[in-house]
């Protein structure tokens, strides 16, 4: 549990940074959507990523503060799963934008 605890505590700053990037992307796509009136799925993906990354925070704090080792280990793995899912969705949405698939 000590290694997993150290890992999820080290992931807190990247979680915040990626959540900020997701929110910035959402606001950018909302601005461009108003200018071009284009329908994209990328802003919904980025909003979902931001919510997922922001939900990692309470789960991480709960995992670190709990006294039960099994629950802490489960919550730590849940945090890692949520973080990796959000990162994969961010990469997918980035490729979606770069390849021009959002039209």
Description:
With 103 residues, the chain is mostly helical. It has four helices and no strands. Helix 2 (12-36) packs antiparallel against helix 3 and helix 3 runs antiparallel to helix 4. The longest helix is centred in the C-terminal third of the chain and has 30 residues, at 69-98. The protein is elongated and about 45 Å long.
Main sheet attributes: strand count, strand direction, barrel closure: none
Distance between the termini: 46 Å
- Shape assignment: elongated
Number of strands: 0
Element order: H for helix, E for strand = HHHH
Q: Cα-atom Rg, whole angstroms? A: 16 Å
Q: What's the total helix number?
A: 4
List keywords for this structure.
103 residues, mainly alpha, 4 helices
Write the layout of secondary structure elements.
Blueprint: H1 2-10, H2 12-36, H3 42-65, H4 69-98
Helix pairs in contact: 2-3, 3-4
Provide a quick synopsis of the model.
The protein is mainly α and 103 residues long.
């Amino acid at each position: 549990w000590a290694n997993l605890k150290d890992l999820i505590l080290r992931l807190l700053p990247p979680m915040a940074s990626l959540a900020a990037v997701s929110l910035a992307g959402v606001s950018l796509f909302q601005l461009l959507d108003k200018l071009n009136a284009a329908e994209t799925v990328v802003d919904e993906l980025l909003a979902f990523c931001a919510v997922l990354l922001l939900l990692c925070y309470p789960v991480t704090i709960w995992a670190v503060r709990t006294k039960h080792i099994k629950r802490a280990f489960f919550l730590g793995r849940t945090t890692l799963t949520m973080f990796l899912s959000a990162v994969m969705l961010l990469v997918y949405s980035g490729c979606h934008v770069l390849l021009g698939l959002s039209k």
